[in-house]
Amino acid sequence: MYMEMEYLGLLQKFLVVFVCCALLWKIIRYLLNLLNMEKDPVTVLVTGAAGQIGYALVPMIARGVMLGPDQPVILHMLDIEPAKEALEGVKMELIDAAFPLLKGVIATTDVVEACTDVDIAVMVGGFPRTEGMERRDVMSNNVSIYKAQASALEKHASANCKVLVVANPANTNALILKEFAPSIPDKNITCLTRLDHNRALGQISEKLDVHVSDVKNVIIWGNHSSTQYPDVSHATVTTDSREMSVSKAVSNDQWLKTEFIATVQQRGAAIIRARKLSSALSAASSACDHIRDWVLGTPKGSWVSMGVYSDGSYGIPAGLIYSFPVTCEKGEWSIVQGLKIDEFSRTKMDATTNELIEEKSLAYSCFNE
Ligand SMILES: NC(=O)c1ccc[n+]([C@@H]2O[C@H](COP(=O)([O-])OP(=O)(O)OC[C@H]3O[C@@H](n4cnc5c(N)ncnc54)[C@H](O)[C@@H]3O)[C@@H](O)[C@H]2O)c1
């Protein structure tokens, strides 16, 4: 009898251990599954995808440079009829590259098809100013392009679609898009000044002979044009594990206030002179940086520059798309507040503000044409 009870007790213990192990194994498998589970694909629209920025940008997106190495993507590529064959060629190359993250590609000249179910829209297609063209003609062309694309995005894109305008005049094209897509929240429409931000980081890192990742918190204020104000008054550099202000490290105010600013402002023109083509790989890479930080967040203690809808911060009139220092968290940007603005900076910020006010009124005057 006693033996039997001991035997039953042992069996009970064995069963409890067995059930616990089975449960534990189930939990481990569930967690492993969670880790390996593929995310739902994000649909990214690139307009002007047959152009040179488009050609550099789409493989970056398909490789996970924009949204991360574990984020599958579906690419929608839009261009116009004359570029249709070239666009098909880009699609063939994307298929040939066999990108593991690329779950689908649409190449189209139909705006509605391109905008349908889009989560992120990178607007690269547009009508840039070429030599001898009247500013008004350029603006009028962009108004009609962005009016049509804004309506298509508003009607057919995902509800929380994030928009990045790259095509010049980038700030004002973004404003036109905002005007013609009133139901897209202001916070979801931005323009690219990250290239200028990265150029400023690059110039400081060259000057100090440090790696570019050791420099942070430069600011591009205003328009993505030669009136932009690259500001290093709040920037820092880390050398030998010590962080110090860029002004102190450079120790040459004259250079920072003249040559540095002019180099960043004129970098686009310098690249055109050298390449006989405008910047493409750096623009594509910066567009990825812009979206990545917006979606995944900026590192703690760092900010980036983004062209965003002004709320009146730093005395910049509300209603302009103006480049500000921003931090991003959980898919939302916020303008960095409380930075001290000296006399020199204020003059430069006002100059670029005035240009944007003028561009805005030119754009609005084309609205009813
Ligand atoms: N914001 C920035 O930092 C920045 C930097 C570099 C270039 N840019 C601007 O980006 C834009 C693209 O530059 P790129 O070098 O790729 O030019 P690109 O001429 O090589 O390509 C532009 C593409 O847009 C297409 N396009 C024109 N109208 C369109 C429309 N209505 N819908 C869809 N596609 C259309 C063209 O067919 C072409 O394939 C230009 O406006 C350029 O000035 C901005």
From TrEMBL:
Any one GO molecular function term: L-malate dehydrogenase (NAD+) activity
Highest taxon in the source lineage: Eukaryota
UniProt-listed Enzyme Commission number(s): 1.1.1.37
UniProt KW keywords: Membrane, NAD, Oxidoreductase, Transmembrane, Transmembrane helix, Tricarboxylic acid cycle
Domain Lactate/malate dehydrogenase C-terminal, residue spans: 193-361
Stretches of the chain forming a coiled coil according to its record: none
Binding of NAD(+), residues: G48, A49, A50, G51, Q52, I53, G54, D79, N142, V166, A167, N168
Entry's family note: Belongs to the LDH/MDH superfamily. MDH type 2 family.
Protein name stated in the entry: Malate dehydrogenase
Organism: Aquilegia coerulea
Lineage of producing organism: Eukaryota, Viridiplantae, Streptophyta, Embryophyta, Tracheophyta
